[in-house]
Design brief:
The chain has helices at about 5-10, 30-40, 75-85, 180-185, 295-300, and strands at about 15-25, 90-100, 110-120, 125, 130-145, 145-160, 190-195, 200, 215-220, 225-235, 245-255, 260-265, 275-285, 290-295. It is of the alpha+beta class.
């Protein structure tokens, strides 16, 4: 399909419903208002007390379906529009901006309903992320029959720019406090700082001892044995030179200090707290060496 034909098909969805008969999962309520104000540091007294109102900027919050979504979902037309964009190669999506109009005050106890319409679909645009189409939806929020606000939300559905060559791995920040650690890594040695006054070990490297305040130190070479103390799995945002999903682990070394790294050779969904791991050094290019860990059981198989 040529670009003009695709744009015409996309434009045909303008004015069609994106969601019909949506209802707020919860009525407007004081706990959510409190959490919102605490997160934003908003101490306006209008949002507390027996006559409290909801911050106007919470308008979209009352329409959100959470992780499980709404029992009344988005329309078939909106799903068709997104599928058409996917078919055209615009498989990635990013939220770009929103506009809100406030027409009435919301108070705890108000139960909201909403309807959404596909307001506009742009012609193909070129951005730094790639080429694609901006899709704008308008959501009308009501309490009973009263229109209390309008929320316009815009996304970009785009075809990600294809990279010919994988970008280089980000470089660590080396300064006067940690230069000795990175020199050790280049020599395939994992060095831990040790206070010469109280013998406390510390990692990451610091200019002074957190236990006694002593400024002097020497180093101890780690044995390389450790266990996974905690971990997270990174899905988003994708970052150049990394291939999500992948696990970022906090490893407790046998010496008692902890460090953040990656587990190699083990799928991200097989990483577990308490899993024994063993240090190894991996070269990512001509001048970058990083300490990583391999599951001890996997190492034994290899």
């Amino acid at each position: 399909m040529d670009e003009d034909g695709l744009t015409a098909r996309l434009k045909a969805y303008e004015g069609r419903s994106a969601a019909v008969g949506g209802t707020g999962k919860d009525p407007v309520n004081a706990p959510m208002i409190r959490h919102w104000c605490e997160a934003l540091g908003d101490t306006n007294p209008a949002y507390t007390g027996p006559d409290a109102i909801a911050p106007p900027t919470m308008l979209q919050a009352w329409t959100m379906g959470g992780l499980t979504g709404h029992t009344t979902g988005r329309s078939q037309a909106y799903d068709e529009l997104l599928a058409l964009l996917d078919e055209s190669g615009c498989t990635s999506v990013v939220a770009t901006d929103c506009e809100q109009e406030y027409l009435a005050t919301l108070r705890p106890g108000d139960e909201i309903t909403f309807d959404s319409v596909i307001e506009s679909v742009s012609a193909r645009k070129t951005t730094k992320l790639g080429t694609g189409h901006f899709v704008t939806t308008r959501t009308d929020v009501r309490v009973g029959r009263t229109l209390v606000g309008t929320h316009r939300f815009r996304i970009l559905k785009y075809a990600p720019e294809r990279r010919k060559k994988a970008p280089p791995r980000p470089r660590p920040v080396v300064n006067r406090d940690n230069a000795g650690f990175w020199e050790g890594v280049q020599q395939r040695r994992l060095l831990i700082q040790r206070c010469t006054a109280c013998a406390a070990l510390r990692f990451p490297w610091l200019p002074g001892c957190a236990r006694c305040g002593g400024p002097d130190w020497d180093t101890l070479e780690a044995s390389g044995e450790g266990t996974v103390y905690s971990y997270v799995v990174m899905h988003h945002p994708p970052f150049p030179a990394f291939d999500p999903p992948y696990a970022v682990v906090l490893v407790e070394l046998a010496e008692g200090v902890r460090m953040i790294s990656n587990v190699v050779g083990t799928p991200y969904d097989k990483v577990r707290i308490g899993m024994p791991v063993r240090l190894e050094f991996r070269s990512y290019d001509d001048d970058l060496v990083l300490p990583v860990f391999r599951a001890a059981a996997e190492e034994a198989v290899v």
